[in-house]
Amino acid sequence: MDRRKFISRSGLAGAASLLPLGALGRSNITPGCHRPWRETSPETGPVFSGNPPSGSRKFKLGLQLFTVNDDMNRDPLGTLKAVQAMGYEDFEIYGFDPEPVTYYGLEAARLRSSLDTLGLTVSSGHYGFSTFFDAPEDRMRWFTDRCIQGALALGSPYITWPWLAPDYRTAENYRKLAGMLNRIGEQVKAAGLGFAYHNHGFEFKAAGEVTPYELLLRETDPELVKLQMDLYWVVHAGRTTPQQLVSEHPGRFVMWHIKDMDTRTRDYTELGNGSIHYPNILPDPDASGLEYYYIEQGGNFASSPLESVAASAAYFKEHVQGYFE
Predict the structure, then answer these.
(1) Rg of the chain on CA atoms, in Å
(2) Is residue 31 part of a domain?
């Protein structure tokens, strides 16, 4: 679909977006790189078509499960069924315990079996690397190996470093982090998986001559360390834009986090309730190297996490999803 037409036509999905996935019908999308098909018009440039050629893949509607973390801890399988009925098909997982290699208390193999039965996938996970930041290198390698075991058991192609604890946010430690990311990326790549770093807002605050994010972009190997762009935090920080980042570092942002910003507090909020108008700020998926995206809301729920992710899914399908088709 032409993006200029998308912006004007994005309100047409309407009532269909509120139906459970089963009522809409399921596609036979397989895990992997779900980049949208595009053709090029000499007059208008890239045109996104609603009629891709046979065999092409579309993006799955993704959810970062930290959004419904309490529900997942209480009833992981029931929660997965509930969000599936809202239209979510793919997940970024949370709740990892490295000692028994479990997620939300479930053995990775058992969780994978349940996901397969439901026709759902896990394409990435947020893992607690920051806990091992000052640990001996062999402990970080041990933890990374456990993450690899879990990801392989789930059939998840990516492992993601999601957070750096406040005590470590110094110019010296960001340089240390860059080397650490390269080493972990090498270990993960050797296992046949991809590794990515997820940003917040603190990476865009000055810490020496360049921002930490600029340093990480410069000193990590693009072949070993991909990037998961949290679009909310890029907008929140205000130093650059998602489109500019992709323009300067094409092909590196393989995953996106999509969430809205409360107009008053600038906290998280449901999609459509805040100040981020996604049709205006989304980068080109192909230029980004995008493979997966996830809706997320880390808190500030209007009523409950499940009601919030339902509202966000409905808004996304009506106003944003056409951008990826």
Answers:
(1) 19
(2) no
Residue 203's domain comprises 62-298
Structural domains in the chain (count): 1
Rounded to the nearest 10 degrees, the angle between the axes of helix 171-190 and helix 137-154 is 50
DSSP states along 235-295:
HHH-SS-HHHHHHHSTT-EEEEEE-EE-TTT--EE-TTSSS--HHHHPPPHHHHT--EEEE
Name the band, by pLDDT with cuts 50, 70 and 90, for residue 208.
low
Q: For residue 101, what are its two tokens?
A: 């290699």
Residue 228: name the closest of 189, 202, 258 by CA.
258
Q: Is residue 170 part of a domain?
A: yes
The answer as to whether 111 is a domain residue is: yes
CATH number at residue 141: 3.20.20.150
Q: What is the spatial distance between Cα 233 and Cα 211, in angstroms, rounded to a whole number?
A: 14
Please report how the helices 76-85 and 108-118 are oriented relative to each other, as an axis angle in degrees rounded to 10. Answer: 30
Contacts of 159 (CB under 8 A, 6+ apart): 124, 125, 127, 144, 147, 148, 151, 188, 193, 194, 195, 196
From the list 301, 288, 287, 302, the residue with the least C-alpha distance to 257 is 288
Burial category of 300 from C-beta neighbours within 10 Å (exposed 0-12, middle 13-18, buried 19 and up): middle
| Stated pTM of the model | 0.84
Phi then psi dihedrals of residue 264, to 5 deg: -100, -50
User: Would 129 be classed as within a structural domain?
Assistant: yes
Kindly report, residue by residue over 79-133, the tens digit of the pLDDT.
Answer: 999 999 999 999 999 999 999 999 999 999 999 999 999 999 999 999 999 999 9
Q: How far is the C-alpha of 38 from the C-alpha of 286, rounded, in Å?
A: 9
- Can you tell me the distance from the alpha carbon of 175 to that of 84, in angstroms, rounded to the nearest whole number? 41
